[in-house]
Structure formats: C-alpha cells, structure tokens
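--- STAGE predict ---
source: upstream dedup step, 1 unique chain passed
mode: sequence only
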Amino acid sequence: MRRKAQASTEYLIILAVVVIIALIVVGVLGAFPSIGRGTSAKASAAYWASAPIGVMSYDLSDTAASNSLRIMNNMPVEITLTAFDIGGTADVITDTTLQPGEIKTIQLTTYVCTAGESYSNVFKATYTNVDTGEAGLIFTGDVNLEGECLDV
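--- STAGE serialize ---
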C-alpha cells in the first residue's frame, strides 16, 4: 500500500512541475499581456536603437507638447529629417539635419496616446539624403514602436 501512495505523490509532483514550466513558457511568449508586454517593448527598443534612423529613446504621452524622440542617424550619409508618421498620425517637424552617428532630440507636435495604456505603432520617417539631394525618402521600421503611454 505504501508503494501506491509514493507513486501517486511522485506523479502529482511531476505534473505540478510540468504545469509550472508551461505557465512560464506561455508568459514569456506573451499570452498573458501583463507578463509579456515588457518583453516586446524591450525588443522594440533594441531594434529601434540600431535601425538606419535610430530612435534611441522616446517619451510619448497624452499631451502632444510633451512628446519627444531622441533620433540617431545610423546611416553613412548626412540626412535631413522632415516629417514623422507614428501610427498614422503625421507630425511635420522642423527640418533637422543629422551627420552620421549624430543624435538629436526632436519635439513632436501632434501625436498623443491614452495615458497608462500600451501602444504599438508603425513608425515612418521622411528624410532627404543631403549627399545626393534626393528628397522625400521614407524609412519605415520592420518593428512597431512600442511602449506605455505616459501621463503628463
């Protein structure tokens, strides 16, 4: 009789370990929004830091005047940024010229989000290649710009 109880206990312990591992895997993959959200935002930030027109940091809030992007020119040519489009909201900016590797903070004027909520937006930058004079070039990222909207 003692052997049956031991086998049942071992079975339950193994089953509990398998369930715990499955919950961890599902959480990391993002099935639980509150657990997986940080992972995708970190992946987004990593992508954007190394994109041709890099977004080194971004503070997006519910107040347009408080929104800014730290942009880095990761291309080997001088560029002039002329406009951004974040999630379908066009934002015309003051023309900003960036040398290769240069970082500048750019204030946005129209984009707003809902405070406390997560966002995931397509980001497009319109620019001019200063070296060739080619204007109206558009860079669209392969990954959405993701984060949590600030309450300002």
